[in-house]
Amino acid sequence: MYSLILKLAFNNAFLRLSRTLLVIIMIAVSMSMMLSIQGLYDGMTLNMIDKTKRSDSGEISIYAQGYRLSKELADSIKDASSIQEALMTETRIDAVAVRLKAEGLSSTARKSAFSTIIGIDLDKEERFGRFSEFLKEGELTLGRRGVLLGSELAKSLKVRIGSKVIFSTQDSSGEINAMALKVKGIVQTNNISLDASAIYVDKMKLHKFLGMPEETATQIAIRTTSPGLSESLLAEYKSLDVKSFLELYPMIRQMQDMMVIFNSITFFIVMLVVFIGIMGVMYVSILDRIREFGIMKSIGLSYRLIRLQILLEALFVGLVGYALGALLGYGALSYLVHVGLDLSAFAEGMESFGMSSVIHADIKLSYFTSTFIAITGASLLSVILPLRKIKTMNAIEVTKAET
Amino acid sequence: MIRIENVEKYFYRGEDRELHALKNIDLTIEKGEYSLLTGPSGCGKTTLLNAIGALDTIDSGKIYLEDREIGSLSEDERTTIRLNEMGFVFQAYNLIPVLNVEENIGFIMKLRGFDEEEIKKRVKEVATILEIDTKLSSLPSTLSGGQQQRVAVARAVAAKPKIILADEPTANLDSKNSKALMDMMRSLNEKEDISIVFASHDEYVLENVDRIIRLNDGKIIES
How far is A301 from chain B (nearest CA, A)? Predict the structure, then answer.
């Protein structure tokens, strides 16, 4: 009996092929566009998170207590080298970067700008966050007087590769000190604050310039995939300020929340379109076949089985649309994951928000599972109104119609 | 087999009774009977047929099918009675367009849970009697009116109902097809011992039934 109902549902779902195909295409296209938008939103956020972690905080950063507020050299980590050594023995830690930072003023003959000088070890930064990928112009070398400049800082100072920059700041003894630097490269991390103010120099050189002992540092950044590491470090380094990425960048958490809202709104709109589309085609299809349902009711087919047939019809349409949409969406997402969406025309605006000019999408199984559940739900709900029509019809009246 | 006692039926427009369609109907139809409800248009023959077939409700009185009162059953219960014990032939054939002839004939048997082999055998048997056995894989839309009506009859008899109710079965057929259909109905009535009740004002039907029940203005005037 159920095989007969299944056959009736299948044959009727594709009886008016052009009408059904139109709804299937509508579902598939809107679903693939929604998947692409979801992937791009998530890709944009993940890209930002990834670059911020690679260029600055890692998953966890350790500071001396009070440093993040005062930014004073006096509030640096005194035994950073021994902490770094201890951290390197921890199996849950993938990479560690130790940095020394100081705020000051960088100047050229014509311009000056507030800057943060950051002493780094290029090899360790490469292991920590593939630093070389941030290089926009010039070469990745520091040397004796070499310096890498954040892209926005380079713009505001109007410097090019080979230009000279004077950086002046207070050293550890409170004296104003200045150093002449030569721009070797310009880096773009898409981390807004770093691009606008960072001057990367050799860490050892900065220690000497600032009069800071070699074992000191202002930040120890950690890369890990272990979610529980932050709690362990908090317990182990109670005297220090251990912060997770989201604690350091609360704006990114807000952005993630906003993306969830955007995705939910897009999802809701697309599902509403799917719902209305299937409901429309089912309603018209049922009105077209009202006599047929009257006949079936008259000769003994129960309302329960008619309802099952109509639900199956809607499911066929919805699920074929879903399958096609999933294929199209997967294709579009794969392209956006590998090639990305080039928004160079808006790049300046995008970069000022810390985003790349080419956005690479993210692809998650949850996009497909949540859409499957929603389309199945929308298909089943869309027949409520047509079913009411069947339930309230007068079988005698509808079977009277002429052939 | 069917006993109708003092049945009244009204048609309503909103709250108001617009038409007194059946008035104090008393009637008995015996097993194996080959009978006809006839009368002028609007006399109540289709209304009475629908009431007998549990397609429609009545306002008062009782209708018994083998001592079971069916007039006051719920919609679901009436659907079950129609499925298991009755067969219907409509004026407009009313076949299911997406199913082929074989599936249309076996439709009720499938709903009743008959075994596949049994359905196949019975469909072939009935189709042979009704001379549509060469059309089993055709869709209804490819058949002539006479062939479609024969498929409708085959569907009605295939599951061996206790009674077949046929509402104007010859109305859309020419005289040749009407004669062929009536001959087949008679043959089924005799071979399968199925009670058949027609509602028609076709002269040919009138001449070929065993019993004529004449209605006028909602009342039985001859039975």
Answer: 7
Q: What is the residue extent of each domain of chain B?
A: 32-57+74-222
Using an 8 Å CB-CB cutoff, list chain B residues near A294.
94
Rg (CA), chain A: 31
Count of Cβ atoms closer than 10 Å to residue A34 Cβ: 23
Query: Which residue in A72, A84, A39 sits closest to A262, CA to CA?
Result: A39
CA dist., res. A153 & res. A155, Å (int): 5
Which DSSP symbol is given to A367? H
How far is B79 from chain A, CA to nearest CA, in Å? Answer: 5
Tens of pLDDT, residues B113-138: 899 999 999 999 889 888 899 999 99
* Tokens (6 digits) for B147: 């062939």
**Residue B108: which residues within 8 A CB-CB, separation 6 or more?**
A299, A300, B83, B87, B155, B156, B158, B159
**Nearest-by-CA chain B residue for A3:** B110
Alpha-carbon gap: A25 to the closest alpha carbon of chain B (Å): 24
Question: Tell me: the pLDDT tens digits for B171-207?
Answer: 877 888 788 788 888 888 888 788 999 999 888 899 8
**Identity of the residue in A4, A302, A401 whose CB atom sits nearest the CB atom of B92:** A401
What is the distance of C-alpha A318 from the center of its chain?
29
Taking the domain B32-57+74-222, which CATH number applies?
Answer: 3.40.50.300
Q: Which residue of A299, A312, A398 to mutate against B (max B Cβ within 10 Å)?
A: A299
Residues of A with CB under 8 A from a CB of B: 1, 4, 7-8, 11-12, 15, 291-292, 294-303, 305, 395-396, 399-403
DSSP string, A277-293: HHHHHHHHHHHHTHHHH
CA distance A165 to A153: 11
Q: What is the pLDDT of residue A251?
A: 86
pTM assigned to the model:
0.75
Taking the C-alpha atoms of residue A224 and residue A230, their distance in angstroms, rounded to an integer, is 10
- For residue A294, the chain B residue with the least C-alpha distance is B94
Q: Report ipTM (2 d.p.).
A: 0.82
End-to-end Cα, chain A, rounded Å? 27
CA A223 to chain centre: 18
Cβ contacts of A142 within 8 Å, gap of 6 or more: A122, A148, A184, A200, A201, A202, A205
Top residue of B78, B95, B96, B144 to mutate, by most chain A CBs within 10 Å, is B96
Dihedral sign for Cα atoms in the order A227, A229, A235, A239: negative
Nearest chain B residue to A391 by CA: give it.
Answer: B75
CA distance A102 to A116: 6
Do A302 and B82 make contact, defined as CB atoms within 8 angstroms?
no
Do the chains contact at B83 and A396, CB–CB below 8 Å?
no
